[in-house]
Amino acid sequence: MIRGLTQWCQHENTTPNDYGLAAYAEMQRILSRSLEFLYAGYNSPADAQADCDYLLVVKTIEAQFMNWRQEWEETAKS
């Protein structure tokens, strides 16, 4: 069900509050994937990979959040 949030929100039985709940759940999916990627292979949050291009990683995460925002703004309008 979580993977199909956009389609679920467009169902005739949903309420306006369902859009906010679905958008929040999708945002949490992006955040948890991002944190999982950032900390993958670390024994503690203080560990760091010297060969990781963090600027590229952060830009990729930012792009995912920008796409999320655009998608949910369009979903709310329809």
Primary descriptors:
about 0% strand; about 80 residues
3D structure, described in words:
It is a single chain. Helices cover 68% and strands 0% of the residues. It is mostly helical and 78 residues long. The longest helix is centred in the middle third of the chain and has 24 residues, at 16-39. It is elongated and about 50 Å long. The model has no long low-confidence stretch (mean pLDDT 80).
Fraction in helix = 55-70%
Low-confidence stretches: none
Q: Approximately what portion of the residues adopt beta-strand conformation?
A: under 5%
Quaternary state of the chains: single chain
- Number of helical stretches of at least 4 residues: 3
- Average pLDDT confidence is 80
Termini gap: 20 Å
User: What is the molecular shape?
Assistant: elongated
| Count of domains | 1
Topology as H/E string? HHH
Q: Could you tell me the number of beta strands?
A: 0
Structural class: mainly alpha
Radius of gyration: 16 Å
How can the largest sheet be summarized? Answer: none
SSE layout:
Layout: H1 5-9, H2 16-39, H3 54-77
Helix pairs in contact: 2-3
Task: Describe the structure concisely.
By secondary structure, this protein is mainly alpha-helical. 68% of the residues lie in helices and 0% in strands.
